[in-house]
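worker-03 picked up job from queue 'complexes'. Input manifest follows; two sequence lines, order preserved.
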Amino acid sequence: MLELKNIVFNAENDGKNVGILRDISLTVEDNKFVVITGPNGGGKSTLAKVVAGIIKNNSGQIIFDGEDITEKSITDRARMGIGFAFQQPVRFKGMTVVDLLRIAAGKTLSVSEACEYLSEVGLCAKDYIDREINASLSGGELKRIEIATVLARDVKLALFDEPEAGIDLWSFNNLIRIFENMRKDRRGRSIIVISHQERILNIADEIVVIADGKIVKKGSRDIILPEITGTENAVNACSRIQ
Amino acid sequence: MIQMDAVQKRLFQEVADLHDIPEGAYNLRANGQAISRNTTANIDIQSKTDVSGIDIRIKDGTKNESVHIPVVLSQSGIKENVYNDFFIGEDCDVLIVAGCGIENCGSQDSEHDGIHRFYIGKNSRIKYVEKHYGSGDGSGKRILNPVTEVYMEEGSTMEMEMVQIKGVDSTERTTIAELKENAKLIVHERLMTHGQQQAGSIYKVDLRGDGSSADVVSRSVARDDSYQKLDLCIIGNAACSGHTECDSIIMDNGRILAVPSLEANNIDAALVHEAAIGKIAGEQLIKLMTLGLTEAEAEEQIINGFLK
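worker-03 finished. Artifact:
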């Protein structure tokens, strides 16, 4: 279980101190699929990075499985079972897909095991396993590999920061399928996805709306989704090309 | 055959992946003298009479054979110049493994300067692997100044893998190549320097024949207080295509000077160069840390991948 207590994060902007996260408190129970939505610049991605330890909150407490992890490093949190999929996955010259999956799994992964993770994200394993994670991969391919690294880790809490950003519509449809599968086969893990996408919101157990650094709505999908449908907090995939 | 000691065995393993006596043709050299040699029906090895070194002659049509000619120095204070010439016939397909390992636990400098010349016949394909490695904790320096010259006839292909990852204090690597019609040169260089090491790497590739091409890619890492100068030059004297790439990571106080250069002397020469130097990207470290690695482990993985 993840508990956020009064999380505050301020950033300097043009010499002014701007509140990015302003007193956020939130509990994510085990085995839940939670989608965090809200307008751009509202603080969603920052919150996910605070949970993973990539951004250090100025005040407030983060409790994970009963332990205070506020002062723990990215590495420590990862080892405790927090996984993070980046909005913009990084490339590694020379490193191959199987190398990265092995690092993620923390063990020597057989090729067939690595292939399973790739199949789960809809990539034909034998075409990708030895590919370098460099500029030759498309945004959609990178994104799926990024997700596979989280799947390979067997985490207790998986965070996905705007998984749909920067991918084409065709890849987006596949992406939804990946999340639907993950939801079905949760293996006891909790999943937090940062997304505006209606189809991802549609499979959430709970929805949290963050705007201007604060939680403005939270609750079960049945209650929240009707309230936000048709707003910028719940867009359909085509809205980007309309 | 002279027995190898444990140090020599380890050095042979590092530079030529040799766990035992290799198959095919070979010439193993340790501390300034040949300790073992084997020739085959198609590949002959003879000692030179005027200078130190060997002539390797490969018959026309030799395919799927290999030649290993690694060198190790395990005594402090040895300084040698060795000339090895490869005369490769037509229509061959051969793997050549060279390399030098120096273990210097003494106070005197050890130096091996190998001059390799390749004369590659028409339509032959050669894969050449050269690894350099140094170890030992003596104050004497480990110095390697390899010179490689490649002369390529029509339609021949040379793929070179040049690796120097550890332990060589000072190196000046010079590689020159001349390519005739439709000859193709591919070079992958991997270089890592640390401590106070100094490394210079010079390539001069002359594309003389129409349809010739060269792809010279150097990846390097300079750590601690080390310094590298990478000087990659392609000259297009015909309707040819050439590409050079210097891609480097600097760490600590490491310094790198990359000087890629192109010279086009023919209107149909298409030449490209790329060069990039930078530290490891912060996002790369963070990504690997979110997978459970410490910062130092993440750095190692990134470097390993980069130099693979």
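worker-03 released lock.
The helical segments of chain B are 6-16, 282-289, 295-306.
Chain B has a mean pLDDT of 91.
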